[in-house]
Structure formats: C-alpha cells, structure tokens
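Illustration 12: Cytochrome P450.
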Amino acid sequence: MTASPPSGPALRLGDTTARTLLAETTSAADANAVYERLRTRWGSIAPVDLEPGVPAWLVLGHSAAVGMLRDDRTFIKDPSIWNGHGAGLLGPTSTLHLVLAKTPKPTLADADGPKHARLRPPVDDALEQIDEARAGAISRRLCGMLIDRFEDRGRADLVAEYAAVVPFLVLSELDGLEPTQAQRLQEITRAIFEAGADARALTDELREIVTGHIAYSRERGTRDIAGVLSVHDNFEHDLERAQTLTAITAAATEALMAWIAQTLVLVLSDPRFSHRISGGRLHIDDALDEVLWRSTTNPNLMPRFAVRDTVIDGKLIQRGDPVVVAVHAANHDPLVQSDDPWDTVGNRAYLSFGAGAHRCPAPRLGRVVSRIAVAELLQRLQVTLDGDPDKVEWATSPWMRFPARLPVTFPSPREQAPPRPLFPTTAPPAY
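Figure caption equivalent — predicted structure in token form:
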C-alpha cells in the first residue's frame, strides 16, 4: 500500500455524490463487473455509499488491501471515531447502527491494539481444542437430519432449508447450546439486524441467554467453546465472554452459509466445473477454493476507520473516514491474477480469510463443515436447479455474497437411480 501524509490536492470522500451503493457489488449478477467498473474509474480506492447518503472508501487493489489489513495503527476497527457521528446520517431503520456504533462494543471484532491482543487468544484456544473428527461427525448427522426433512418432497430451497441452517446448528452444538437455546438465539440475532436501532430489548435477551450459558458451562466444566471461554483468564468479566461467544457463532454462521450456498450454485450451474468434479479430476475442496477466488463469501469486510489523514492513490482519507476492504476486488486484481483459470486450482493465496490481526481464526474448521455440507447433499440427492442458472437472485447484504434463494428439484428416493460416488473417496488434508 502506498500511503503518505496529505501533500497536495486529493479527492476527499465528500467531493463527489456519484457514489456506487456498496450492496451493488454483492447483489449484481456479475459482481466482478461492478468492481472492475469502479477500478477503471477510480483506481485502487473508490468512493461508495454503505447506505444511501452514508459514504465510505472501498479498497480495490490487492497491495492496498493487504497493507490496510496489516496496518492496525492507522486503520482501526473501533467505530466510535467515525466522523459521521452527530451528522444524522443514519435513519431509525438503518442497518448500520451496529456497524457504526458511537459507543464501543466489548467485542473482539471491534477491538484494537492491547485489547485485541487480550481478547484474541481465548478465541484461538477455544477453536483449536475442537476435534475436527467430532466436528465432521456432527456436521454429517445434522446435514442428514435436514435432508430427511425435504427429500420426500422432491424440491427445496437450499438456502433457507439447508445452507443457512447447517452452520448455525453445528456451531451451536460445538458451543454446548441446547437446541431450544440455539433456535432462540438464531431468531434474536436475525431480529436484531432487521430492527436496526430499535433492538435494545432483543439485545438484553441475547445477553441474558449467553451469559447464563457461560455461567452454566463454567459450573459444569465443559470442554466445548463456551466452556473454554468461561474460564479463560484473559477476560475481565462474563459480558466479554458472552460477547465473544456470540461473535464467534454469528460470524461463522454467516460466512459458512455463504460458502456452502455459493459452492452449490457453482457446482449446479457450471457444467464444466460439475463435470470435472463428477469425473474425479477435482475434489470438492477445489470447488470450495474456486468460490473463494471467483466470488468470495465475504466480498467486503466490515469498515475500518482512519486515525489520521493519509493519501492513497490520490484519495485523501481523512481521520474518521470508514474504509472497506473489497476482498473480491483484491482477489481479482490484475496484478495478482492471470488469464489461466487453472492457476487457482490448489492455490489458496486469496484474501478471503483476511490478513493481519483480524484474520479468520478457524479456516480449517470452516472448510470441514462446508465440505461435508456440500458433499452430503450432492451424494444423497440428484439435485437440479429449478430455473435459469444465469438468473440466480443474490442477497442485498453489502458484506456477504450468497443467493437469496436456491430452489432445486430432485427425484424422490424411490425414483433415484442407485447412488454412485460423486467425489474421490480420499479427501486431501484440510488447510
């Protein structure tokens, strides 16, 4: 990243009103075309709107993205320094109240410096103790349970009935949550994001459930995620433990849902790719990697905020400006991409797991869950997309890329031909 103190005329965030809405980069049929249009017009960093009238910088270049993710002294996660506070930019129904909160939240995602260094080790410790074989067995069991619910119907929405459910169920069991607790937490989490600013009662209920579970796990001495967090000395109080458990579960659920759903879209809609998999030339892991290269699950990371004025590629990033790293655009930067589609096979140099202090803490576990979810479905059902593959409707989240729905049809069990192996029986190691 080429950054320097301001030394001359440079474009400021408020100098233009011709800003692309960030959600266009995730909801467009061809997301790459939107990023490339921005790159052609603005270079490695472009002005966008997080919501109409809420401006931010979008980092498109690979070098600038890596530099920003690693420079946690210049670009921090704490939204309390946002220079839009007090300007009335967020309406009562805005979905950005949690993202741009004026009062710092006691969460790992918003922590910087010494606080982040204190809160990150408990997360690493809790996730590293998970037995991957057990996580795999849990995933297979829960995937089978979900498929049982719709296989006789001959049709399903693989987002609402599968991809959005598997990760939450798996993480909830790894957290040690009872099914009724897990279901209520999922309902509350969704409602909080939909409610925007009017979510205090829901937030209070969420905190009560999770802090109660932390105390219960400590009393029982469990070795699940909640149990490890409940006794870790790095935390100052149970609120930090509860916020951390909530953040782990929510972040993993959203990311894995998008990874599973996008991989299913790829395999079901791209004949060249699906044929290479069924023919044994590629493994399901290659499909997962292809998604992270071609159309990553988290194309735009949550904002960071500049602590001082600096210039990047002729743009003046002022103190308090929100800056969003576009992982999708960075992965497609012409300086790091080639024209050979096979260059990405076995290549995991993408930025989809982030970089720097806030990088993903459990890429191996995420791959285990996603691989099993995709493989179990495709091995058990002969699934066909119900509709034009080129007209898949993408969700309007500015942060995640996933189909809003994925309707499929398949023969009932009595109509299906005898099953045959779809993937090689020996899986490569998970990285």
